């Protein structure tokens, strides 16, 4: 949340979605770590999440983790990328 607040008005819609009470927010136990690093660490340990982002670098990092789908918004529509091959 703090990272979205620092990014300013360009990301106000993302901040509004993040503050929406219908979404469950998970607490980060990392100290001094960027949000991207925390997300990657969490999905590597527990591959039960769908990561929603439009950040190109974060998408690239998440795609390397098998079994973790990525959701983004493109041209006003939600897009969920094909589920990467998950290990058996």
Summarize the structure in words.
The chain is α+β, with helices and mostly antiparallel strands and about 90 residues long. The chain contains 4 helices and 3 strands; from the N terminus they run H-H-H-E-H-E-E. The model has no long low-confidence stretch (mean pLDDT about 85).
List the SSEs and their pairings.
Blueprint: H1 2-7, H2 12-19, H3 35-45, E1 51-52, H4 56-63, E2 70-74, E3 77-80
Parallel strand pairs: 1-2
Antiparallel strand pairs: 2-3
Counting DSSP E segments of at least 2 residues, the number of strands comes to 3
Radius of gyration: 13 Å
Tell me, what's the shape? globular
User: What is the CA-CA span between the terminal residues?
Assistant: 34 Å
> How does the major sheet shape up?
3 strands, mixed
Beta-strand percent range: 5-15%
Q: pLDDT under 50 segments (min length 5)?
A: none
Number of helices: 4
Strand order of the largest sheet: 1-2-3
How would you concisely characterize the structure shown here?
With 88 residues, this protein is of the alpha+beta class. The protein has helices at residues 2-7, 12-19, 35-45, 56-63; strands at residues 51-52, 70-74, 77-80. It has a 3-stranded mixed β-sheet with strand order 1-2-3, covered by helices on one side.
Structure keywords:
single chain; 88 residues; alpha+beta; three-stranded mixed β-sheet; 3 strands; 38% helix
